[in-house]
Amino acid sequence: MQKSDIAIPPKDLNMLQTVLDAWCTQHRIPRKDATEEAKILINEYKRGTRSQIKLIDALIDSATH
Length: 65
Known about the structure:
The chain is mostly helical. The chain has helices at residues 10-27, 35-46, 52-64.
């Protein structure tokens, strides 16, 4: 099993959705248009990030680069 094949448990999926919803609300973008942000969150999750703050930091870093 590759690391990219992991399933995201419901509790963690809810956390990722919450972070994405907050990001979209703050930046006034429709959630359906936030595919790049969703990819960033999933990649960070796969790397082992489980902190909402660190997930938000990853989004901030991607927006500034």
